[in-house]
Amino acid sequence: MAEQGIRARQREHTRGRLVAEGRRLFAARGYAAVGLAEIVRSAEVTKGALYHHFTDKADLFRAVLEEVQQEVGRRVADAADAHGDPWARLTAGCRAFLAATAAPEVQRVMLVDGPAVLGWSAWRAMDEAASVRHLDDALADLVDSGVLSPQPVAPLSHLLSGAMNEAALWLASSTDPEDLARTQAALERLLDGLRTG
Q: What domains are defined for the chain?
């Protein structure tokens, strides 16, 4: 039993190294510019070890993307959960999303290469699992409390998610350090327009 536990930890360690090195390389140069041989060399493992954990480069990238999306989702949830008021939770979560996605590594992996490598449908499903659920919950609380007028939450959630993803992509090409604060302010004005009179 102890030997099985050691092997399981070694497998997890190897997988973690592959994901960490894949993430570092994909973020620095982009998916297309990174080869499996380079990832294996950088992670100091064999190609067989890589294929034990992942079917191909796209499968490794999916694991990297999932990790990035989960980290962004945790940052959003932590920022939102720091507030008791439902409106403050929504706005804090939205601000946190824009701040988290302003990091170049997040932009490259999550917003640029993610849809291109995995395809829009697969990327969207992962995005929904990682963050749209939090947005759905926040909007449902606001509808239930009367802060937002009664309406289906799913369309509004998808509209806001799309707007924030688009804003994050725009920020990726911006060279003005003030644009993050300006974008967060514009998003808050947009959100304020949704509140009931």
A: 1-54 (1.10.10), 57-193 (1.10.357.10)
